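FIELD: query
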Amino acid sequence: MQSSQSKQWDIFCKVIDNHGDLGVCWRLASQLAALGERARLWIDDATALSWMAPEARAGGDGVQVIDWLDPSSLRSAVAGPAPDVLVEAFGCDPAPELIARFAEGPGLAWINLEYLSAEPYVERLHGLPSPVFKGPGAGLTKRFFYPGFTPATGGLLREPDLMEQRAGFDRAQWLAAKQIPWQQGERLVSLFCYEPPALADLLERLADGGQPTRLLVTAGRATQAVQAVSGSAPLPHGRGALSISYLPHLTQPDFDRLLWACDLNFVRGEDSLVRALWAGAPLVWQIYPQDDDAHHVKLNAWLDWIGAPPSLRLFHHAWNGFGDGRLPEPEMQGAWLQTALDARARLLAQDDLVTQLRKFVTQKS
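FIELD: result
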C-alpha cells in the first residue's frame, strides 16, 4: 500500500539482451511497488512481458508500464508530476524530455544501475558520483549503483518472503501442475543457455550416465540449440539415460520454481544467475560472450567469489568455450551442492538490492 511518503520511481530499460535486462527491471519495479513505492517502467519493447509477467498489461503488481517510444506517453509524462527517483538501467540514456522533467522536480536521486559483476572494481565504484555537464540534466549528479555479491556492493534482488516460498515448495505438485513428466529417482536438470560449444558433450554425458536424467529445456535459444545438436522435433525424447522435455515460455515465478525443482541448473546472463543462487542447487553459468574476451575475467572473478571447486571451475571454462578437453562429469550433490548452499548463506546475510537502493536514495536526498 502506498503512503504519503512513497516516492515516484521512473525506471528506464532498453531491451538489448535476450530478456535479462527486462527481467531485472521488472523485478526491481515490482519489488518497489510491493513496498509501497510508485513505480513506472519505461521500456522500448515490452513484448516479452506478455509471458514473463502477464499481469503487467493490466497494471499488475502496482507497476505502470510505459512505451517510451510513444510520443503521447512522453507528452503525458512531461505534463505530469516529475519523478522523485530516476533509475537508468544499464546505461540506457532516457529521452531528453524525461530527464528535463526530472530536473524540474524534487530530483532526489538519479541512479545509474550497472551490470552485475564480482570483479574488484565494483566495490571501488559503487556509490560514486558522476556529475552531468551537458544536456537537460546539466548540473545534476548521477550515482553509480552496482549490484554485487559482497557487503561493499549494492546486493542482489530478493523478495522479502523468497526463502519462505522456497522452503514451502512442493516439487512433485508443481511439476504435475505444469504437466512436466517426472518419476521418482529421475534427476532433473534445467537448461537456459545461448549456444554453448560444449552442449553436444553435455547431452552425451547425461545420456551415458548411470542414473535416469530429464533435461528441462527452456523456450527460445536453448530449445533451438538443443534441436540443432540433436536434430530432433520439439517433443519429449531422449536416448540412453537421458530424457528431454521442451518447456513453453515461463512467467518469472514459474521460472524460479523450475530452478527450485531441479538438481542442477544451467543459467545464462544476469537475472537467471541470481535466481539460481537463491534456489540453492548446483548451477553452471554461461556468461554473455564479449568480443575482447572480457567475459573470461568476469567469469573467473565470480568463480573465485563462489569458491568453486576444481571440477566446477573446469566445467565452467569448457561450457563457456575457453577450457581444454571435454566437460568433466557434472555433479548434483557433494562439493557442487555445498558450494551453492554456502554462497546462498553468505548472500542471505546481506541486505537485498531494493533495501539498499531505498536507503541509498534516502541518504542522497
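FIELD: remark
Residues 16 and 222 are 18 Å apart (CA to CA).
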